[in-house]
Design goal:
The protein is of the alpha/beta class and about 325 residues long. The protein is about 45% helix and about 20% strand. The protein is built from twelve helices and 13 strands. The strands form four sheets. A six-stranded mixed beta sheet has the order 4-3-5-12-6-13. A three-stranded antiparallel beta sheet has the order 10-7-11. GO terms for molecular function: DNA-binding transcription factor activity; transcription cis-regulatory region binding.
Length: about 325
C-alpha cells in the first residue's frame, strides 16, 4: 500500500469517475485502474462497484476514513518538515475576499516576516473546504456557517458580517422614486444579476430572480460592468462595490419590500494548535484588522491566540 494508491482511491470517491480522477491526478485512466486493483488485491476486498457510475462497496465505505486519515497524516508530516526548513504560511480564501482582506494584511505581515513564504489560494466555497480537508492550506476564509459535508471539523476564529446592498446604475437610480417598489425597479431594469455570495441564496435574493424577466449569472467583474451600464441590477457584497458607490458609478437602492441582506464569513482552521506558531497567529490578527474595516466582527476568538510577545487574555 502506498500513498499514490490511497490518493487515487480518495480522488475516485470525490469525482465518482476513474476518468475524472485520472485527469485531476495527471495520470492515465489505466494507471488509476492499476493502482486500485493493486490496493484491492492487497486488502483482499472490492472497493468499488463499477458501472455507468462508480460507487463504493460497503468495504470501500469502511476503508475510506482510514485512507483519508493516512493521507492527511502524511500531508501534515510533509508540512511539518517544510516549516522546519523554512517558515511558511498558507491560506485559502473566497475569491472576492482576497483583495479586501488579504492584500494590506499581507504587506504588513511580510514587513514583519520578510523571510517567510506565503501561499494564498483562491476559489469558491467548496474549493476552499477541499483545500482545508486535504490540508493544502492551514487556514481558510469562507462563508459561515459551513454546510459542506466534506469538512465538518472547522474552528471559526473570526466571524465577519458584511452588508450585501442592491445596486443599479446612476441613470437607473435617477428615474426611481425615493423608496421605489421592486416592480418599479424591474420595469426599468428587467435583468437580475445572480451572484452566488452565499452557500444557499437567502429568500429575498431568490425572490428577486423569480420576479425578473431574465437573469444572468456572472463573475463579479463582468457583473459590476453590466450593472454600471444599466443592463442589470443585483446584490453585491459591499467590499466588491464600495469604491464604485463612492465614485458614483453605482447607486445603492432600498426597495420597500426588501430588507437589507448580509453575508457572514469566517476565518477558520481545522486545528487551533496551528496557532501555536506565532507567525501564523500574527497573520490572522492582521487579517482580522481588515475584517473590522470591511464589515462588522460578530465573533472574535483571536484573543485566545495573542500576537507574539503578548499573553492570552
Amino acid at each position: 500500500m502506498d500513498l499514490d494508491q490511497l490518493r487515487t482511491f480518495d480522488r475516485i470517491v470525490r469525482e465518482q469517475s476513474f476518468t475524472r480522477a485520472a485527469a485531476h491526478l495527471n495520470i492515465t485512466q489505466a494507471t488509476a485502474s492499476m493502482r486500485i486493483r493493486a490496493l484491492e488485491n492487497l486488502l483482499g476486498v472490492q472497493l468499488f462497484l463499477r458501472g455507468r457510475t462508480v460507487t463504493l462497496t460497503d468495504q470501500g465505505m469502511t476503508f475510506l476514513p482510514f485512507a483519508r486519515r493516512i493521507i492527511g497524516t502524511a500531508q501534515e508530516g510533509r508540512e511539518a518538515l517544510r516549516r522546519v526548513e523554512r517558515g511558511r504560511v498558507s491560506i485559502g480564501s473566497l475569491r472576492t475576499l482576497v483583495s479586501p482582506l488579504i492584500t494590506e494584511s499581507l504587506l504588513r505581515f511580510q514587513e514583519k516576516y520578510p523571510a517567510v513564504d506565503v501561499v494564498v489560494r483562491e476559489g469558491r466555497q467548496a474549493q476552499i473546504a477541499a483545500m482545508l480537508h486535504e490540508r493544502e492550506v492551514e487556514m481558510g476564509i469562507l462563508c459561515w456557517p459551513n454546510i459542506d459535508p466534506l469538512v465538518v471539523d472547522l474552528e471559526p476564529l473570526v466571524i465577519m458580517r458584511e452588508r450585501v446592498p442592491l445596486v443599479v446604475s446612476p441613470e437607473v437610480a435617477a428615474k426611481l422614486s425615493g423608496q421605489p417598489t421592486i416592480d418599479e425597479v424591474l420595469a426599468l431594469v428587467p435583468r437580475v444579476i445572480a451572484l452566488r455570495w452565499w452557500q444557499v441564496d437567502p429568500e429575498r435574493a431568490a425572490a428577486l430572480v423569480r420576479l425578473a424577466q431574465t437573469s444572468v449569472e456572472l463573475p463579479t467583474g463582468p457583473a459590476r460592468r453590466l450593472a454600471m451600464k444599466g443592463e442589470g441590477l443585483g446584490f453585491f457584497v459591499n467590499s466588491a462595490v464600495e469604491e464604485d458607490v463612492k465614485a458614483g458609478r453605482l447607486v445603492e437602492i432600498s426597495p420597500a419590500e426588501f430588507e437589507p441582506l448580509y453575508r457572514d464569513t469566517a476565518i477558520v482552521v481545522r486545528n487551533p494548535a496551528v496557532l501555536d506558531r506565532p507567525m501564523l497567529a500574527d497573520f490572522l490578527h492582521e487579517i482580522a484588522q481588515e475584517c473590522a474595516r470591511v464589515g462588522e466582527i460578530i465573533d472574535n476568538r483571536l484573543h485566545l491566540y495573542p500576537l507574539s510577545g503578548q499573553k492570552p487574555r
